[in-house]
Design brief:
globular; 49% helix; 780 residues
Length: 780
Amino acid sequence: MNILRSYKRTRFFLWVNITGLAIGLAVSIMLILFVVNELSYDKHFENKERIVRLITVWEGNEQTTHYAINMRKAYTELPAKIPGVEAAVQLYQRGTLEVIQEKERFQNVRTLCVDPEFFKVFRMKFVEGDAQTALSNPNSIVLTRRQADIIFGDSHSAINQILKISDRDYAVSAVVENLPANTHFSFDALLPMKSIDDWMGGMPGLEFLTYYLVSADASLSDVRSAIEKEYSSITTAFGESFSAKVYGKTDKLTDIYLHSDGFSGNIGRMGDMRFVWLLSGLALFILLLAVSNFINLFIAQGETRMREIGIRKTNGAAISDIVRQFFSEVSGIVLIAFIIGVVLTIILAPYFSELIHREIDMVQLWNPTFILSAAGLFIVTVVSSAFYPALYLSRFSPLDILGKRIRFSKRRLMVGVVVFQSIITIVLVSFILIVNSQTNYLKNIPLGYNPDNVVTIWMNNTIRNSFDAIRQELLSVPEIKQVSGAQHTFGRGCSGQGISLLDNKEERHSINEYRIMPGVGELMELQLVEGDFFKEDAPDSIYQVVLNEAAVKMLGISPPVVGKSVMYTWGITEIVGVAKDFCYAYPADKIAPIALSKTNWGGTIYIRFREGTDRRQALEKTSEVFHQFDPDFIINATWSEDIYNQKFETFATTSRVITLASLLSIFIAMLGLVAIHLYTTVRRTKEIGIRRINGATPEAIFTLLTSDIVKWIVIAGIVAVPIIYYMATHMLNEYSNHTSLNWTMFVIPILVQCIIAILATSGVTLWALHQNPVNALKKE
């Protein structure tokens, strides 16, 4: 049967259905694409089912921390003791380096140091060179095709060419294909682990990511247990030296991306299974809104087709024939909506990817899992949309239909749909307020330092060797207020050290560390509780440290603290100052103990500009000074304020996603509400005419037509409040620092829903009020 002809008298309902379904299906299809993309991480590796990663679990200071990095012994000693380990490899993050090719410089080259077995564990396609010799020479370097093209123009020209990194020459030994985007780690260049042999003696702790390839004929679970047990025995003494319990766990390669968020030492950005569940829930709600609209409207307009159904039954049509007809019509409508949804997904996927800060590979559109999931979504939508309406409309007797003895009881269904849709939209609007309140609460927590107008710039060897002279030149620039340097960047990763009291050396504590030069404390405007910061004229023979309040509390040192000494990593160290706790990690977490240790050299220069200095102008002034000492130096600047703002990215992304979902939910719900309100108002035309002739005012009629909607939204709000409270309490309790719930987070969403509903249906109501009541009474 022609769909458009069937809906000839109710085309408005048809396009409302198609629009709502298309939006719901587009959101669902996009979610399926996102989930398939997230679940596809690392599955392109040939031995994916046999690769496991080692994790270090640290239990101490009344908290448990998971580290993605391990001791070097996990590679040098452990594999030989486990028969089921076919190969092992460790990765060390060198960071983003400057690579020099003759006179050209290339910044931000992501570089890893790896063991020779890297290509045995992670098999990759070689464009040039081979896996056996690629990492055999300590002075060799392996490039990705993309990086080789950037530096040399093509991969073939790169082989045996010399690249300089940190004043050391490396010869290009191989070029490999770029890793797919759905890989939990990435790199532009690989260096042999032997290239940092000189550093190994200073890295006895947790520094390396470790992966094992399990033999094909070995039990994966048994080998994993053996690795965990052996590594735990290796780390026992190490943990005891920090008064902590340290042991090992393993993850399958394909589980790493979605189950490692929050681990320290991760390489690259990890996914978050909670975010996947959030998007899944939102998409499901939106699809349910669209399907419930469809069912409601389909049954509502079904009354106009009851004569057709009665005639078909009189002519011999069975219930199964009527059901088949409705399923056919619904399938056609859903197919149209589905095609529109797929087109919208393809068009909007890049914007959605940008919204959630996740890279979605459109190649996943051809992934069999995606195709099967999309087909399943289509079938489920058809069945759920057609099943109830088809059975409901086909059950009536043809005599009752043609005799006009049918009285539809659609009120319960309409009320149920309105309440259900209102609950979803109220909950979503409420969570917008809650997430924004949590974000504002965290932003209002005293930071403990001032990141405004501070820029950090990575220094190459030339700049580093001229630091004192550059510092003096920079201080002569009127826009520059202060200059110093450090080995760490405030707001980013720390080093880990050990600390204990001199009279209790056995009870050693782990502590985070920033190594800073004199002047950084003042430049960052840290607040002192006791003592002072480091002085430039202090002798190098005296080890000095500044502790934060959390570190003093952990050690149990009674004031005055300044002048006392502790046993630090490199020996007896004097405490010269106590800084007020400052937020150097995630603002929602409790501030952990940290030590600021003195160093006389740094890899990063800190510059504070005066208030009102434009960023572009500031970097131009800085660049002029740097180029006096290195004409080809490329400034790679990071603003401290940006580092701080990035800590709220998760909340910002969640807020944007929930806001978008709320707008879509409200649009779909109001679209259905307007259609239903139009239908019911038309059905009450004679009643409205009688009321007006009997003296009812327009205000009374308006109240009559909208009061039910408001009543059911209020009921939905009453149901939604405990749902909101439970979900919000559970979410907020995951954070050490969190906002409190207040009445506005529950009442405002209900008021917003009521106002939107009244505005959305007021057009229909006003139309009814402008009809001539005499004409209404003439209609049957």
